[in-house]
Amino acid sequence: MTKQVKINNLTIGGNSPVRVESMLKTRLNDREGCIKQCESLLNSGCELARVAFPNKNLTDDLKYLIENTNLNLMADIHFDPELAIIAMESGFKSIRINPGNMNLNKLNDVIDTAKKLNVVIRIGANGGSISKLQLDQAEGDRSKGLFIAVCEQAELLLKHEFYNIILSAKSSNVNECINANILINDKYPDFPMHIGLTEAGPGDGGIVKGVACISNLLLRNIGNTLRVSLTDDPEREVKIGYEILKALDLRTKGVNLISCPTCGRRRADVRNLVKYIEPFLNNLPDGISVAVMGCEVNGPKEARHAEYGIAGSLNGALLFRHGENFGEYKFNELNNILPEFFELNNK
Fold first, then answer.
1. What pLDDT, on a 0 to 100 scale, did the predictor assign at position 345?
2. Whether 225 contacts 194, CB under 8 Å
3. Residue 150: is it exposed, middle or buried by C-beta count within 10 angstroms (0-12/13-18/19+)?
């Protein structure tokens, strides 16, 4: 088990659940847009969001943001140590830096400020920041080069006796990212790790790559906080993150919706049936399983473990709870019966 770090009231590592992160995709000087996105992310379940802080001209905007949202934020800093200090003094309790691309003479000031203000520092490298020297040391192995880059960063902080650290190594290549994280976890098992695939891309392809990387690491017990990086809305990243954790039985946010892929045997249009019942699911407790099946073959028997189930039948739809028959109804009767079926009238 790793050590635990704390960002405001959010714990990461130790016996904490795997956390779900995202990043603001609005520019920092768009104050209204940033606050709106923070609220949307909070409502989606996001637990920590990075915000890019690229120059001092945005200092007032940075302060405005941290003072006007309840979402836990991490300032994302590159190159300029002074920006890291400004962010911490503005109230940020976590920053992300790459010590390797900073003026090392000023790194002491960053560390001293972080110690004084009890700030968590996330350090890490990505595939695009591996130097030629690091790649030569790794004999051309990019996973090992990424590992070397992170080790160099970690040692810079550790030699200054700074331990309030989250480690990270990301790449746009699934295997490269997985192998680098395995190496880092083996060397630094005591520190919490942030995992994810960077620049995964849009749509189904981006989701599949992100899921392949993150799930592989989580199944190895590597990763304390994650981000599914997509060319998409940040709320989408959060939703996919929770779906990964739910599939691996690591978190139970939201309903576990089970539905059959359908075949020529179906008696109901499962896709439309799923869309029809989804509004009724919003008020169910986290972790509840709901099954939607196309016919009686895939109905109560295959989904008997679900708390609630609906299956197409000869005369309409068969409803069942824990595998027990609740009743058979015509489709035009469902709207009236579903609140009772889902026990929403008692809530």
1. 63
2. yes
3. buried
